[in-house]
Amino acid sequence: MRTIEYQAEIIKELNQTVNLIADEEADKLVDRILRSKKVFVAGAGRSGLMVRAFAMRMMQMGIEAYVVGETVTPNLGKDDLLIIGSGSGETKSLVPMAEKAKSLSGSVAIVTISPESTIGKIADIIVKLPGSPKDQTDSGYKTIQPMGALFEQTLLVFCDAVILKMMDSQKLDSNTMFSRHANLE
């Protein structure tokens, strides 16, 4: 196949996945983000990169958002939210993080393929994304892409859609957000 044909197939797969995400789950996440004092995001590998991008957009909206593990990340408190992006919901570094957030009376949300996972059982909010896990052996969802690529792409698209929904509800536009864009680059 030519590169353009691979790109077309990826777009086709993404079109299929975004139509399978429950609006009610997304609405719960939007509502909780907007009610939170601080929002923390966490993920590992490529999923971690996607939620980092989400934190950046929330910051540009004026939301106090942080990436877990950064040296400038403050403490989590009872009015705060931890959002975890994890296809499996079993990532060994993320499970204790979710447990700790709950023990501190924070809320936990997970965006995942596996709502029945360990983190899914801990979470207050679960957003199920369709996709294939890294080990596609027993996956019911077929993709031409390697490992968890489809989940990771769907996660980024979902996070951008959540940003747009929050922008709409807060009457924000891109120009307002640009005023908070990094300027030391």
TrEMBL record:
<comment type="similarity">
    <text>Belongs to the SIS family. PHI subfamily.</text>
</comment>
<dbReference type="Pfam" id="PF01380">
    <property type="entry name" value="SIS"/>
</dbReference>
<dbReference type="InterPro" id="IPR046348">
    <property type="entry name" value="SIS_dom_sf"/>
</dbReference>
<dbReference type="InterPro" id="IPR001347">
    <property type="entry name" value="SIS_dom"/>
</dbReference>
<feature type="domain" description="SIS">
    <location>
        <begin position="29"/>
        <end position="172"/>
    </location>
</feature>
<dbReference type="InterPro" id="IPR017552">
    <property type="entry name" value="PHI/rmpB"/>
</dbReference>
<protein>
    <submittedName>
        <fullName>6-phospho-3-hexuloisomerase</fullName>
    </submittedName>
</protein>
